[in-house]
Amino acid sequence: MTRPITAGVDGSQESLAALSWAAREAERRGLALRVVHAWRPQPQEAPEARIAGDADGQAEWVRAAVNEAVGTVTERHPDLDVSTDIVEGPAVDTLLAAAADAELLVLGSRGHGRIVGFLLGSVGQQVIAEAARPVVLVRAGDAPSAEAAGREIVVGQQGDPEDSADALRFAFETAAARGATVRVVRAWTLPPVFAYSPGSLKLLDEAGGLEPYERKSLDAAVRPWRDRFPDVPVEEHVEMGSASQVLLSVAGTAQLMVVGRRAHRTAVGARIGSVAHGMLHHADCPVAVVP
């Protein structure tokens, strides 16, 4: 079964940017676009109720707003297969169910420049942490010009080849659809035994060093994807430093940042790892989080 690209919309400028991004990506990949909106009737004292009236009036108001947003997309992409689902229910549950049936889920996220980056609400955080499929976060103001030639798909790689296989697959598939270069980034740090001993570092360097080992590890992880996508240009980037710092150092050339996600269960629910968290809060391009 062919999965659609799904966009969650709520009427905000961020979600409209996400919808536009999702439409472009669906067209590039030859996939359908599904637009999902979750809502619940508001009490009479709420601003929405004062505008739209009772539950029936609110439902009609919601439909009109979603249809207006979808109409803009269909005008720009007349050949795109677009469907709309307006669901009465909790936003998190609705979006997680939609993500399970999607190639990827696209959401909007508020941002305030490179320093603050993405400001994730509770809905976005829960969906990213628990979704079974990739989730892409897009900020208001994202435009097709950001996908211009010369801007790369940047993806983080760590551990053994299988540890980052899903993120690499997503990055290469996206690059193939866009005719873009993939920059695969592997960050490394000194083991504690070497950190405070210049003599040990010298011996390690004479023996070949840690960096050549890291480069070989990266090459082994990337090689299957080079073979599978021979037309996709690849840049391998190995740098000493924390993964978040190294990825952010190359984010300025990225049209999309791709990171893996390992969700951690806590007493208050699932939480994403530090690298995904860092990219979502500080990268100024769209970020794809791949479970």
What does this structure look like?
The chain has 291 residues and is of the alpha/beta class. It folds into 2 domains: 1-142, HUPs (Rossmann fold, 3-Layer(aba) Sandwich), CATH 3.40.50.620; 149-291, Rossmann fold (3-Layer(aba) Sandwich), CATH 3.40.50. It contains 12 helices and 14 strands. It has helices at residues 13-29, 47-52, 55-76, 91-100, 113-116, 122-130, 165-178, 192-195, 198-206, 210-228, 243-249, 274-282; strands at 5-8, 33-39, 82-88, 104-108, 110-111, 118-119, 135-138, 152-156, 182-188, 234-240, 254-260, 264-266, 269-271, 287-290. The strands form 3 sheets. It has a 10-stranded mixed β-sheet with strand order 3-2-1-4-7-14-11-8-9-10, with helices on both faces. Strands 5-6 form a two-stranded antiparallel ribbon. Strands 12-13 form a two-stranded antiparallel ribbon. α1 links the parallel β1 (5-8) and β2. The two termini are 20 Å apart.
Short key terms for the protein model shown above:
elongated, 14 strands, alpha/beta, 2 domains, Universal stress protein, ten-stranded mixed beta sheet, Rossmann-like_a/b/a_fold, single chain, 291 residues, two-stranded antiparallel sheet, Rossmann fold, Universal_stress_UspA
Please state the CA-atom Rg, rounded to the nearest Å.
21 Å
**Number of domain modules:** 2
Mean pLDDT: 84
Helix/strand/pairing category: alpha/beta
Secondary-structure element order, N to C: EHEHHEHEEHEHEEHEHHHEHEEEHE
Low confidence ranges: 111-119
CATH level-1 class of the largest domain = Alpha Beta
Kindly estimate the percentage of residues that lie in beta strands according to DSSP: 15-25%
Continuous helix count: 12
Quaternary status of these chains? Answer: single chain
